[in-house]
Amino acid sequence: MKIKSLCFIAAMLAAPLTANAAYVTINESGLDAIFSQSSFGTNTVDIRIGPTTQFVRPDLLDISTDAEIGDLFSLHTGLSNIVNFYYVDTISSCGSINPSIIGCGQVGGPNFVVESLYAADNSIPSGGIISVGNQLLAHELGHNLGLSHRTGNDLMNPFINGFMDLNATEVSIILASPLVQTDTGGQRFITINPVLIMAAEAIPEPSSAILLLVGIIAASIRSRKARLAGLPEADQICHK
C-alpha cells in the first residue's frame, strides 16, 4: 500500500491533544472551489458528501503503526470508487514513525485518514489563501486521485502552506482517476463517505443538545489554545 504525507509549517499550531473524541468536519464548498479552479477549465469536479459511517474502534483512535493504518482502511464502506475519509484523534505512523503526522492517504486508493482537530482548523497560514482544514482534506484526496508531492505554492506541497494550485498535469491525472465519475448530466464528481472512529457508542439523552454545545465550545477552546501555544518556526507538523 503506497501512502504519502503532507506537512504543516507549524509556527502557529501545537500538536493536538488526544481527546478520544474524533469528529467529522468537511467544508464541501471549500473542496469544490479547489477542484473547480481555473486549471480545470470546463472539466470541473464536484465533491459530493455521502452519509457518515461510525465505527466503535477505540483501538484505532490513535494510529501509531502501519498495521493500524491497514486495519483502518479495511473498514472501507461503499464501492471501490467511493472515497472514505477517516477521522481519528492522532496519527504518528504512515510509512514511517513521525509524531508530527496529521494525515495519511493512499496514492491511487480510496482511503485516507486525518486528525479531526486539524481537519476542523479554519485558520489560513500566513500568505496562503485556503484554510488548514481545506488543504489537509484536498491534499489527501489528491493522493487518492494519483497525485504525488510537488514543492511550491500549490496544493500538493508536502507542507501545509495555505495554497490550492493544481497544474495542468495534475488536473489530467485527476480526470483520469477511476474515483472521478460522471453523472447523466455530464458533470464529473467524486463521492466521499466520511467515517468517524469512536471510543464508545453515543447514548442519546435529554441533555444531549447541551452536551453537544459544551463539546463544541471545548473543542474551540482547545484549538485556540493550540494556536496560541505556538511552536518554534523550525518545527514542523507533518501530515501524510
Question: What does this protein look like?
Answer:
The chain has a single domain, classed as 3-Layer(aba) Sandwich (Collagenase (Catalytic Domain)). Helix content is 26%, strand content 22%. It contains 6 helices and 13 strands. Strands 1, 3, 4, 6, 8, 9, 11 and 12 form an 8-stranded mixed beta sheet that branches. Strands 10-2-13 form a 3-stranded mixed beta sheet, covered by helices on one side. Strands 5-7 form a two-stranded parallel sheet. β11 and β12 form a beta hairpin. The chain is globular. It starts with a strand and ends with a strand.
Defining traits:
240 residues; alpha/beta; Collagenase (Catalytic Domain); eight-stranded mixed β-sheet; three-stranded mixed β-sheet; 22% strand
Task: State the CATH architecture.
Answer: 3-Layer(aba) Sandwich
CATH topology: Collagenase (Catalytic Domain)
- How many beta-strand segments? 13
Helix content: 25-40%
Work out the radius of gyration: 17 Å
Parts with pLDDT < 50 across at least 5 consecutive residues: 8-19, 221-240
Indicate the CATH class: Alpha Beta
Major sheet details: 8 strands, mixed
Task: Using the alpha-carbon principal axes, give the shape.
Answer: globular
Mean pLDDT: 82
* Count of runs of 4 or more consecutive helical residues: 6
Q: What structural class do the secondary elements suggest?
A: alpha/beta
Termini separation comes to: 13 Å
In total, how many domains does the architecture comprise? 1
Percent strand equals 15-25%
Task: Summarize the helix and strand pattern as letters.
Answer: EEHEEEHEEEEHHEHEEHE
